[in-house]
Amino acid sequence: MRIILLGPPGAGKGTQAKLVSEKYSIPHISTGDIFRKNISEKTPLGVKAKGYIDKGLLVPDELTIDIVKDRLAKDDCISGFLLDGFPRTVKQAEALEDFLRNDNQTVDTALLIDVPSEFILERMTGRRVCPSCGASYHMKFNPPKIEGKCDDCGNDVIQRKDDTEETVKDRIDVYEKQTQPLADYYKAKDQLFVVDGTQSIGDVFKTISEHIGSRK
Ligand code: AP5
Ligand code: MG
Ligand code: ZN
Fold first, then answer.
1. Sign of the C-alpha dihedral computed for residues 185, 27, 113 and 53 taken in this order
2. pLDDT in tens, 7-42
3. Is residue 135 part of a domain?
4. Which reaction is the catalytic activity of this chain (predicted)?
5. What is the enclosing helix (H) or strand (E) of 52?
6. Number of the ligand closest to the Cα of 54
């Protein structure tokens, strides 16, 4: 399965991606996680990306598209992948389509996790993430089993720098202007599936799993 996850900041893309990638044994590729790893390692890409991410802006397509192409060319993507947070612009979606077409492939489904903006701020400010494995928690909705520690690897969980109220508002704005048009893009190709992201984490996953099961 070649799956794309769309949705506003805090929709639960990372949370669901982890569950889906474990269930279907496909790699979870998050452009946000790739950028954050590069930022923490202070690579040239990380230095360039940081300025945009800290402001809640998109990293330019020229920097983003090639990273994803390189990642999708790796062997573990042969039988499928789950893209979390890419594409985010129509240009990125077209580049992905061209790339897959070279191998006679297409996206199987674009899952849009739909969450109205009034839910987002509470999700973002309560979020804690594991800097080591990328797992995402919420102090109220999905706390780690041991306070402050990642369930999977035991590292200290931290708050993301772009999860402040001010930056979250900018990220929602950017989402509405630049990424929301992708819903129509995938709808026109009959690839869009919208799931109500205000349900519990378990119910969102159940809906997504049923949909994936029906496409296999
Ligand atoms: P990215 O890391 O992708 O951030 P995002 O899209 O803003 O999404 P988030 O990771 O904030 O939210 P999520 O949907 O993964 O939610 P989560 O599962 O954590 O990108 C960061 C930045 O990188 C961008 O702003 C941009 O600058 C750059 N970037 C990345 N990709 C790019 C691209 N392709 N092009 C250009 N620039 C790019 O859940 C959120 C919280 O809610 C958690 O605490 C979780 O526990 C909780 N939660 C999840 N589901 C539920 C539920 N059902 N009920 C209650 N709580 C829930
Ligand atoms: Mg995420
Ligand atoms: Zn971890």
1. negative
2. 999 999 999 999 999 999 999 999 999 999 999 999
3. no
4. AMP + ATP = 2 ADP
5. helix 44-54
6. 1
Residue 37, SS3 per DSSP: helix
Q: Supply the pLDDT for residue 47.
A: 96
**pLDDT tens digit string along 61-113?**
999 999 999 999 999 999 899 999 999 999 999 999 999 999 899 999 999 99
Q: Considering the domain boundaries, does residue 147 fall inside one?
A: no
Instruction: Tell whether 124 is covered by a domain.
Output: no
Look up the domain containing 92 and give its range. Answer: 2-115+166-215
How far is Cα 35 from Cα 131, in angstroms, rounded to an integer?
12
- Structure confidence at residue 111 (pLDDT): 98
Q: Is residue 98 part of a domain?
A: yes
Residues marked as catalytic: 13, 88, 127, 160, 171
> Can you tell me the mean pLDDT for 151-165?
94
HSE at residue 112, side-chain half, CA atoms within 13 A, is 20
Total structural domains in the chain?
Answer: 1
Q: What is the CATH number of the domain that holds 173?
A: 3.40.50.300
The binding-site residues of ligand 1, defined as CB within 6 angstroms of any ligand atom, are: 7, 9-15, 31-32, 35, 52-53, 56-59, 64, 85-86, 88, 92, 123, 126-127, 136-138, 141-142, 171, 197, 200-201, 204
Nearest ligand (C-alpha, residue 16):
1
> How far away, in angstroms, is 38 Cα from ligand 3 center?
17
